[in-house]
Amino acid sequence: MSLQKSFNIQTFGCAMNEHDSEIIAGMLTSLGYTDNKEKNNADVAIINTCSVRDNADKRFYGILGELKKIKENNSDFTVCLCGCMMQQQHIIDTVKQKYPWVDIIFGTHNIHEFPKLLTSVLSEKQKLVDVWEEAGEIIEGLPAKRDSHFKAFVNIIYGCNNFCTYCIVPFTRGRERSRMSADILKEVNELVKDGVKEITLLGQNVNSYNGDVDFPGLIYLLDSIEGLERIRFMTSHPKDLSDSLIQTFAECEKLCSYIHLPVQSGSTNVLNRMNRKYTKENYMKLVDRLRAANPGISITTDIIVGFPGETDKDFEDTLDLVKKIEFDSAFTFLYSIRKGTPAEMYKDQIPEEVKHERFNRLVDLLNEISLKKNKELEGCVVKVLVEGISKKNEDSLTGRTEGFKIINFNGNSELIGSIVDVEVIKGKTFNLDGKYIQKFIV
Ligand code: 5AD
Ligand code: SF4
After folding, report:
1. 333 touches 350 (CB < 8 A)
2. What's the CA gap between 277 and 439, in Å, rounded?
3. Ligand 2 pocket residue status of 179, Cβ below 6 Å
4. For residue 33, how far is its CA from the centre of ligand 1 (angstroms)?
5. Which ligand places an atom closest to the C-alpha of 265?
6. Which residue spans of the chain are classified as CATH 3.40.50.12160?
């Protein structure tokens, strides 16, 4: 066994969590640890948990069961839990009661303190729970060990002030805090120097970024960075999608023709009860304006099915909106109760079988539209950032179009990391097949 200690991180949930894990990995690498993909052989296991995505919590308790067996054979094995679930007291209580062998619990607001917590637990051989209820100041300059060499997540705003009635995030990630533009530009410039081509600006609601400039202002600043080729952002709240932001899609060359704009429901009634602060009609007008500014823009969304009180008519409104807008693709969620959110108390919860029946109808419709839209691209030449070898076919490369569609095509692995022209040969429901044309010269 090597003397160098190693860590293994399992990450659940959204891009925010993925990026938090990159920072945890960066800090542990600075401490001299190596990244160990074999979780059974690592010295330190970290589970970065999610409170939102389907079943993430069930899988979490399954993983704790597996880790217990490793811990029984090796008492030096250190188990650490973090992420959104750990910001909920009832979860901490359950872990303490049922999994008392867990070594460290920390939260979303004190990730930067993890090296200190780990060192103290290892030297004093004691357990530690340190979860902050509120966020402190934004900590700049934390190292990140990123998964990709040519694309990177960059946080611009933390937390959420919106309190959609189904959502736990405002409780687990706290109020909105924006980074200063100079700090963001410094980070992006360094990434570009290291070879990064594409950045994704991250926040629960990037549209309410409010540092020393506003969000469109930040995009203009980033658009002028030499060597950076692509800018994306997620997630946007429709209520804050301003005309000046829509204008950036017409004016900023590096901003990809792509937006993820969660609608959640096509029924104005349901949107009201979700506290989303827009109507079905407002949302459709936003999409018209986006398409006027950038005709080829690819639009994806999130939709929740079976929110309390959702009637057949409400659900028909969602289907109608989906048909009218024709999303490129969508993440669909069955509504499920999050403890502590206002919708937990809503009386008219929808029976599971009704939710599932609606969910299947919605997914069928969305898939039909995705296939149609992807077929429309056949014969077009698209720009692709080549991300690697396809998982399904070793002879094939895989990458993403500006519109965030996965495309597989034959090509030399030397193309990985560059932006190339690819002709779309076949549009399928979930991805595209293409033919390599040429390397894109900036
Ligand atoms: N039930 C179902 N889906 C939810 N989401 C958030 N909270 C819930 C919930 N309680 C979905 C929303 C959000 C996405 C990240 O997760 O659609 O946009
Ligand atoms: Fe949750 Fe709504 Fe905030 Fe998104 S905008 S994180 S759905 S409360």
Report:
1. no
2. 45
3. no
4. 35
5. 1
6. 6-130
Give the pLDDT confidence of 249-278 residue by residue, as tens digits.
Answer: 999 999 999 999 999 999 999 999 999 999
pTM: 0.94
Q: Quick one: fold of 6-130?
A: Rossmann fold (3.40.50)
Domain 381-436 has what CATH class? Answer: mainly beta
Evaluate whether 202 touches 154 at the Cβ level (below 8 Å): yes
User: What are the tens digits of pLDDT across the range 347-404?
Assistant: 999 999 999 999 999 999 999 999 999 999 999 999 999 999 998 888 899 999 999 9
Measured in Å, residue 338 CA sits from the centre of ligand 2 at 13
Q: Which residue has its alpha carbon closest to ligand 1 atom 2?
A: 335
**Residue 338, ligand 1, Cβ within 6 A:** yes
Least confident of 87-91, 282-286, 369-373: 87-91
Q: With 0-12 CB in 10 A as exposed, 13-18 as middle and 19+ as buried, what is 133?
A: exposed
Q: pLDDT category, 58, cuts 50, 70, 90?
A: confident
Residue with tokens 């609608």: 263
CATH code, 151-375: 3.80.30.20
Report the alpha-carbon distance of residue 287 to residue 110 in Å, rounded: 38
> Which residue ranges does the chain devote to CATH 3.80.30.20?
151-375
CATH 2.40.50.140 domain extents, the chain: 381-436
- Does the Cβ of 204 fall within 6 Å of ligand 2? yes
The predicted structure's pLDDT at residue 41: 87
| Cβ of 304 less than 6 Å from ligand 1 | yes
